[in-house]
Amino acid sequence: MNFEQYLQHHFGKVNLFDRSFVEKDFVIHVDLVKDLYQLKKNSDEINEEYFKQAYQKSNELFEDLFREE
């Protein structure tokens, strides 16, 4: 089961950007990327490296937490 499948299975159609999501009983905030921002410096251009690292780290975290041993 991957991260998206886990969210669908346990939370249904959850929107991670919806403000109501952060008001749930159990929420953990994790900084996945340090020293980078969503936008490139002094620009409104998306920083693809930020999102690449965030995606990679979130998948690694998910796999570490839910690894079957």
Automatic annotation (TrEMBL):
Superkingdom, taxonomy of origin: Bacteria
Record InterPro entries: DUF3885
Domain DUF3885, chain residue ranges per copy: 4-68
Pfam families attached to this UniProt entry: DUF3885 (PF13021)
Protein name: DUF3885 domain-containing protein
Species whose genome carries this gene: Exiguobacterium indicum
Lineage: Bacteria, Bacillati, Bacillota, Bacilli, Bacillales
